[in-house]
Specification:
Shape of chain B: globular
Strand content of chain A: under 5%
Number of strands of chain A: 2
Largest interface: A-B, 20 and 25 residues
Oligomer: heterodimer
Distance between the termini of chain A: 47 Å
Radius of gyration of chain A: 23 Å
Radius of gyration of chain B: 21 Å
Shape of chain A: flat
Chain lengths: 268, 287
């Protein structure tokens, strides 16, 4: 069950998308999000979808992985879509039952929202699937480095992020192990009444926290042993270098964004 | 009747994803009541996955697990009872301790079984004695204890459920030699008192050789062999081939045989080796 969580899961490969400079990829993803939210016509969404699926095809990552990242959010999506559908009171009424009514505006808004969010999730999953967490934080550090001038702790932030990302799988594994061990002692975790389950949660949380603190302590010691002293004067093993393909990818994205904005304006 | 039996047990992880991997591949074996079994195998050989099937923590992809002749998955609702009958102690079990006192932590399993206070108390005291924990420790916080003591508290927590089969996954990993001997000694004594079936996963051939009646060897998700200790170590060369070690004393006697001194039988404990050698030297003197 816990193994199926895909947040930040890197899917190794050697496609053109994988090889793009991560800094560019982050900027492109930001532009992509702007693209999805500018232009209020179905044509604009269609362009966004074409862009998304094109990129997915190029990455060579199976569609199933994207379905996996969308699936957990489906209930949330459905609830918001239903609320939008029923509570948007303006526009032509299509269907009515007592105080509930569906209007054209409501229908459009909810369909739009669902497609937008699904595309958004797929696009951002593409970023994390094709970029290893470490390169991703490297890129974030570089992109934020101008903020250092105003004394913003950029390196510390990036380090915290890499550590957090690094330990997500470890903690998931740990939770899995502790759950199995307590189940072996007869703890009811996925069966039994709500109160017993809540009580048994303690038997998992306490060992989990203890182990997290222990790991933190060990990590801190290991870092000190290697004379870690923060970002000042640190060089990198992997230097980020941009290549022509990065500029081409950026140019394509900007073109798509411009297209969406222009078409949106024309159709208005 | 075998207490624990598997029939063509197969388990595959992450079916239908690129990470699909068969960890246990058509394993059939029978474990008789009262046996002390050593489980050997390389990291990733599937032994941990196998033992998690014995108490129903994992459900076989195909094949069956029988406890006292009954399929444990016949009634899904009763799987918790299986866990009380087959106690499983994981690797580094001290990391699962969570209660405020040693007593409460050992009592966690029995409490889940729905036993009354008096029975729980009896079991906690009895297992604490079995595993060599002094009574005054019972009211202390388990987090103040030493590593070896914590380990024993965690093992006692499973023993207190009085399972018919006790499975321990590397109970001595990461302990110093004194702590290791102590734990093995207490497990052996527990075995003698209760006559229950015990399975111990271990990497140390020396340990396994001293206590196991039978040895189960896993290799690359398959059952390599399951036989009496003597017969398993008689296949020392094959065992070395799959990357496992045989006891040092067995290696010494293998070398002696190559040089022309054959005792006929497989030697795997130091005590037995000493007796053999002393007898041999005496015989030579007489001649």
């Amino acid at each position: 069950m816990l193994r199926d969580i895909t947040i930040g899961q890197y899917f190794p490969g050697n496609s053109i998308i994988h090889r793009l400079d991560p800094r560019f990829k982050i900027v492109i993803t930001l532009l992509y999000i702007i693209m999805l939210f500018s232009g209020g016509h179905y044509i604009c969404l269609l362009i966004g979808a074409v862009y998304t699926f094109g990129a997915i095809l190029l990455s060579g990552i199976p569609m199933k992985m994207f379905w996996k990242s969308v699936k957990p959010l489906l209930p949330f999506l459905l609830i918001t879509a239903t609320l939008n559908l029923l509570l948007m009171g303006t526009g032509e009424v299509i269907w009515q039952w007592k105080f509930l009514k569906i209007t054209e505006n409501g229908l459009n808004t909810s369909v739009f929202m669902v497609i937008r969010i699904v595309l958004l999730i797929m696009g951002s999953s593409l970023l994390t699937y094709t970029t290893s967490p470490i390169t991703l934080t490297d890129a974030i550090e570089r992109l934020l480095s101008p903020l250092r001038k105003i004394k913003f702790p950029v390196h510390e932030l990036a380090m915290m992020m890499s550590i957090a990302l690094r330990f997500i799988p470890t903690l998931i594994e740990e939770t899995d192990k502790i759950m199995s061990a307590q189940k072996a002692r007869g703890a009811e975790i996925d069966t039994g009444s709500f109160t017993t389950r809540a009580k048994n949660l303690i038997s998992i949380l306490v060992p989990l926290f203890i182990s997290a603190f222990r790991r933190a302590d060990e990590l801190a010691t290991a870092m000190e042993c290697r004379c870690y002293h923060g970002g000042e004067g640190r060089t990198r093993l992997r230097q980020l270098k941009s290549a022509p393909r990065d500029y081409i990818a950026l140019a394509i994205t900007v073109l798509f964004l411009a297209g969406v904005i222009v078409i949106g304006k024309i159709l208005d | 009747m075998a207490i624990l039996e598997t029939q063509e047990l197969t388990y595959t992880y992450s079916v239908g994803t690129p990470f699909e991997k068969t960890a246990v591949d058509h394993v059939s074996l029978k474990i008789e009541e009262g046996e002390m079994v050593g489980v050997m195998g390389h990291t990733g050989s599937g032994k941990s996955t196998l033992i998690q099937h014995f108490n129903g923590l994992l459900k076989p992809t195909s094949g069956k697990v029988l406890l006292e002749g009954k399929d444990i998955w016949a009634d899904k609702e009763k799987i918790r009872d299986v866990r009380f009958k087959v106690g499983l102690v994981f690797q580094y079990p001290e990391y699962q301790i969570f209660e405020e006192t040693v007593y409460k932590d050992i009592a966690f399993g029995p409490k889940n079984m729905g036993l009354d206070e008096a029975e729980i108390k009896r079991r906690v005291y009895e297992t604490a004695h079995d595993i060599g924990l002094k009574e005054e420790l019972l009211e202390r916080s388990p987090f103040e204890l030493s590593g070896g003591q914590k380990r024993r508290v965690a093992i006692a927590g499973v023993m207190a459920m009085e399972p018919k089969v006790l499975i321990l996954d590397e109970p001595t990993a990461g302990l110093d030699p004194a702590g290791r001997d102590k734990i093995l000694d207490h497990i052996r004594r527990y075995h003698e008192r209760t006559k229950n079936t015990i399975l111990i996963v271990s990497h140390s051939m020396e340990d396994i050789a001293t206590f196991a009646d039978k040895i189960l060897v896993m290799s690359k998700a398959k059952l390599f062999c399951y036989d009496e200790t003597v017969n398993v170590f008689a296949r020392a060369d094959e065992i070395s081939d799959i990357g496992l070690d045989v006891p040092q004393i067995t290696k010494v006697f293998g070398e002696l045989r190559r040089r022309g001194l054959d005792f006929g039988k497989e030697v795997y404990t130091v005590g037995y080796a000493r007796d053999l050698l002393l007898k041999h030297l005496k015989d030579r003197e007489v001649r």
